[in-house]
Amino acid sequence: MRLRLDIGYDGTDFHGWAAQPGLRTVQGEIEAALAVLLRAEPEAHRLTVGGRTDAGVHARGQVAHLDLAPELAERVTARRLEGVLRRRAPDVTIHGLRAAPAAFDARFGALSRRYEYRVRDAAARRDPLTARFTAEVPRELDLDAMRRSSRELLGLQDFTTFCRAREGATAVRELLRFDWRATEDGAYAAVIEADAFCHSMVRALVGAVVAVGSARIDRGELRELRDARARTSRFVVMPAHGLSLEEISYPPEEDLAARAEQTRARRDPVLE
């Protein structure tokens, strides 16, 4: 029986999502809580996650799935799992837990992933209550310039400049949304959505646009860097703690299997 878990966490004190020996991770804490309910070893029941977040990255809309025998699945409810986590890991919460179709795959079945990145510039008043979730930039930022430059990065293209693709894979992704807003507490928040992301891609994209907003580079140079498809030191990858995974979207049930098969297929390079 396949179960879907909807998860949130403050990533500050975690070494990322993925279980690692001797390190505190989100996956490790949830699997340990499941082991309490199932009276099993944590390694006996592994989670498959929709977005494998790095150390320090937060989530409001993480999704994972888990396969259990029906008699074991009866022991696992959102209330029971949340109860164990409140005692063991209060920085993790289970928003929901329910049966899912056999074709549901938290990772490969996703249509898109949406992140938010919060940044505060030198002109803003510092806020200690949001410091764990907001990166600080020691310069004033031009919000309009960041909005314009973000729009130029949209679409299906090779994002090698902004990420490291896995060996044998490409960095071709479709960036669906990249826009900015001013928040009530004086920060700026970027909303970034794509069909998929490669490692550090969101933080690199934000770093490039912040470089435009702080006048370190201009929009023309950003376009040149984008088209060069090569790593560069002209902008920095932003810190992890400003980033939060907000939502993972999935197709209707009848399209789940086809979507997973499509996602597993290797993407062709983008031609000139």
TrEMBL record:
Protein family membership: Belongs to the tRNA pseudouridine synthase TruA family.
EC number assigned by the record: 5.4.99.12
Gene name tied to this protein: truA
Catalytic reactions of this protein: uridine(38/39/40) in tRNA = pseudouridine(38/39/40) in tRNA
Domain Pseudouridine synthase I TruA alpha/beta per the UniProt entry, residue ranges: 151-251
GO molecular function: RNA binding; tRNA pseudouridine(38-40) synthase activity
Residues that hold substrate according to the record: 115
Pfam families in UniProt: PseudoU_synth_1 (PF01416)
NCBIfam families in the record: hisT_truA
Keywords, alphabetical: Isomerase, tRNA processing
Superkingdom of origin: Bacteria
Self-association and partners: Homodimer.
Protein name: tRNA pseudouridine synthase A
Entries under HAMAP family matching the protein: TruA (MF_00171)
GO biological process: tRNA pseudouridine synthesis
